[in-house]
Amino acid sequence: MTTTPIKAGAVGRILSSCLGSDAGRFHPVIAVRTPAASKDWDGTVIAVDAAGQYVQCQTKDERGSSPDVPPTFINDRLWGTGHVVEYFDAVGEPAGKGRYLSLGAGHYTNAVAKITVSYGEDPKQYPAVMAGGAFFYTASFSTGSSPAKLIDAMSTPYVHAYNAAGKEIYNQKKDPQFTGTSR
Q1: Given 3, 55, 112, 144, which is the most exposed site by the fewest CB atoms within 10 A?
Q2: DSSP code, position 166
């Protein structure tokens, strides 16, 4: 689903409001607006510091916020266990009458060349924004007025990762962490 870049000056203000005095340690790798705005969000800025710690700040205009305290994610916490994808936050909320906004992000190893996202049981995959070892996905769904349509719109996003040869090397639908089959 379509995103648009956030202008550089706004990115600095977003990181400052999200990270306070730590903002100067981070450089942005992804800064985009979502295809629709909700009450709380209209984009995301993902930044990384020299130690490889990422931050995901949800945006509203030129303000940034994070539900995490501190709002950083250490990128090496699962690399040693064979994971190629690690998640930051995935959130969703209504985006006006008859609309729903879903967004999420994470980071990936250098074995990954492409990341896509599918929703619910629909097999169609949409490309994620990728840069600097991070990825971001977003979708705006029409919910209409039907409760069933709202449930469909809130369908779970599933991340898929592919190597340079185009082979799927990760499918969140099969990940034991999410299927309940982990030890």
Answers
A1: 144
A2: S
What is the residue-level pLDDT of the chain in tens, covering all 183 positions?
A: 688 999 999 999 999 999 999 999 999 999 999 988 888 889 999 999 998 888 999 999 999 988 777 777 765 554 556 678 877 878 888 888 888 888 889 889 899 999 999 988 888 999 999 999 999 999 888 776 655 554 554 578 899 999 999 999 999 888 877 766 554
Determine how many CB atoms are found less than 10 A away from the CB of residue 57: 26
Backbone angles phi, psi at 124, to 5 degrees: -60, 135
Run of H or E including 10? helix 8-19
Beta-carbon contacts of 115 under 8 Å, excluding residues fewer than 6 positions away, are 85, 108, 127, 128, 130, 135, 137, 159, 160, 161, 162
As a whole number of angstroms, the distance between CA 27 and CA 25 comes to 7
pTM to 2 decimal places? 0.86
**Nearest to 63, CA basis, from 94, 92, 98, 37:** 37
Q: Is the Cβ–Cβ distance between 30 and 46 less than 8 Å?
A: yes
Phi and psi, residue 37, nearest 5°: -110, 140
Cα separation, 109 vs 84, whole angstroms:
5
**Distance between CA 2 and CA 61 in Å, rounded?**
18
CA proximity to 12, closest of 58, 78, 62, 71: 62
